[in-house]
Specification:
about 50% helix; 11 helices; globular; TIM Barrel; about 220 residues
């Protein structure tokens, strides 16, 4: 499973690339707001940090766009900012219609804001490069469905679609583990979540026990 960083903060991205060898980056308008950048400025800066052609960065179209032609035109424009960019379009009727045209133009699309299996299947059927089912947003509002991601994974793989399942809106280490266990291709997480996931209090406890033992030998 690949680990993507969900952030638009350049210092976090640089740290994750250098220290963690992260596999890709996802962004959204809220991340850009927190980073204080417009999407064009972010794209210009991140392109200089990308380590390889396989490293993708997801950029989202203007969420105000409601018509498929508007979404299509915006996505094409964003895709031309760099060959590593995958363009996020919403899992709506207009978004799916735009996806068909974008696929024909060779634009890689990340269908985002996926909250049910039918949305995921439609995205895969129409040729999405990534499909991003959201888990944390549902759970934060009391909509807890432990079978959501496993069902999406099973359905997509049942029909041998090429789309990669990118589990998004993760909020806990458990979300990462569940995504891995059910066979999701990618998980995208915040910088802070990875920092928590890569450490463990039991590891620290073990180090303390072993350090005390070491000191008793070498004092």
């Amino acid at each position: 499973m690949l680990f993507f960083l969900d952030s638009a903060k350049l210092d976090e991205i640089e740290y994750a690339i250098t220290r963690w060898k992260i596999d890709g980056v996802t962004t959204n308008p809220r991340h850009l707001m927190n980073a204080g950048m417009k999407v064009e400025e972010f794209a210009q800066k991140i392109i200089k940090m990308i380590p390889s052609l396989d490293f993708t960065v997801s950029l989202e179209v203007n969420p105000h766009l409601k018509e498929s032609e508007e979404i299509f035109q915006e996505a094409v424009k964003l895709s031309k900012l760099g060959e590593n960019f995958v363009i996020k379009v919403p899992a709506t009727e207009a978004g799916f219609e735009a996806l068909v045209k974008l696929k024909k133009e060779g634009v890689k699309v990340n269908v985002t804001l996926v909250f049910n299996l039918v949305q995921a299947l439609q995205a895969a059927k129409l040729g999405a490069f990534y499909i991003s089912p959201f888990v944390g947003w549902k759970e934060e509002r009391g909509d807890i469905d432990p079978n959501f991601i496993p069902t999406v994974v099973k359905a997509i793989k049942n029909y041998h679609y090429d789309s990669k399942i990118l589990v998004a809106a993760t909020r806990s280490v458990r979300h990462i583990a569940d995504a891995a266990l059910c066979g999701a291709d990618i998980v995208t997480c915040s910088f802070d979540l990875y920092k928590k996931a890569f450490e463990n209090p039991y590891t620290e406890m073990g180090l303390k026990i072993f350090s005390d033992s070491w000191d008793s030998i070498y004092r």
